[in-house]
Amino acid sequence: MNAYTRSRFLTAVKLFNDKEYFECHEVLEDIWFDVRDNSRDLYQGLLHASVALYHLTKKNNIKGTLIQLSKAEEKLGRLEGKVKEIDLTKLLSQLKRIAEKIQKKEQPKRLPKIIITL
Length: 118
Prior knowledge:
By secondary structure, the chain is mostly helical. It has helices spanning 3-17, 21-34, 40-59, 62-77, 88-103, and strands spanning 82-83, 86-87.
């Protein structure tokens, strides 16, 4: 990952963790359009996760949330363990828990954060 992409990626992570999901989606979309290697699934999966959480927190759009969570799980599920310093196993588990809560008509108590480890 070049310095410019890394800078944008770290910005997207901060936006996600600050619950600025729409803005996060915008940054991730820009990265996804620019990148032409096998990391595209990561960026697209995170993009879908941010859109899902935007639908959940700002639009109360349960159907849209579940659709986007499913897309996020599909893209991120193709990757194993840690990618780009992110523990995807933990993130996927958190996203699945949110989907399960919503399907039970329960409100998730905690929203996931993207944790970067060095």
